[in-house]
Every structure is written in structure tokens, then in C-alpha cells.
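Structure representation:
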Amino acid sequence: MKLPLSYYSNQDVLFLAQDLLGKVLFTNIEGEITAGIIVETEAYFGVKDKASHAYGGRRTDRTETLYSQGGISYVYLCYGIHHLFNVVTSVEDDPHAVLIRAVEPLIGTEIMEFRRNMPASKAAISSGPGSASKALGIDRSFNKKDLNGNEIWIEDHGIQYPSDDIVAGPRIGVAYAQEDALLPWRFFVKGNKYVSKPNKI
């Protein structure tokens, strides 16, 4: 059921960002398993993308993870509060990534409810990348984890959305990326309540 590491080495990050919709993201923290269906993503196109941490070939202690072979996690702190979980894709030294922006609770919902202090029926529990990470218990300790391991992984449960139900639009919070901020590289499932705002294009 786990996606094989070969899946992540695909060099077409825009394809993967759409293909990951419907896949199921799992975490296992001290035996507590939670999982959510991925319903919103954003693609980041490596050194050529002004919105990417690796734009222009930038390599720092933080961004070095992005240059790994696809199939590991890249987790960073945003605004000093939110942990954002990204899937590193493509091949070594080609720093593409897919940000997971929202998940629909699927397994271990009562654990998610405890972590977020709200019912799973409330969209805010896992809507937006910071909330999705918190619901799944993802923090900086999950950075550079093997996505084929036993702490964090993604499975294919055969959930597929018709192409008409996948919406593409500009990414969120990347105004600094100038013209690249307008690229339609955010993808989400139309009508899914767990998708972050704006959920209409």
C-alpha cells in the first residue's frame, strides 16, 4: 500500500502535486497512528521557482534536505509557529517539492481531535498546512524522514478524483515570488470542506 520510493523520483512535480490528491498520509507517533486523505497541495519547482526555498540554487542547512533523492520529508517552521510538511520529489540535486496543504481526517480521528482541541467534523482541524501538520503530529523532528519508513509515509487507497474535480490556482502566501506567485501550481479537490481558503478559484 505504501507508495514506493520510485514514485517520488518522478521529475514532473506538477504531475505529482495533482497525483498526490486522494493519497493517504500516515504518521505513527509512539504507536499512535493517524492518517488523512490529501485534498490540497502546492508544487515547488526547484531552482527556477522564485517561491521555492531552493530558488537560484540556494543551499543552506535548512534547504539541503530539498536536494536529496525524492522520497523524504522536508519540514520547516513558518512564521515561528506552523510546521509545514513537504514531500521531496525528483532526483538528487533537483530540489522539487510538494507542500501538503490540507488533509481530510481518515484514521485516528480522536487523536487528531485531541491534538487540535476540536471535533473532526470541523474543517479547521486539518485545513491549511499548519493545521494539517498539527493534526497529524508533524513537527521539526519529522524533517528528513524516509517516506518509506514507519514514522511517516503515504499510501494509495485507490481514491481518485475526476479531473473535473481538481482545481488549479495560484499558490498562497508567496507574493514575494513576483510573477511566479501567479503560477497555477496549487491543486485542490473541488467541494471538499477541508480545503483551505480560498477554496474557490
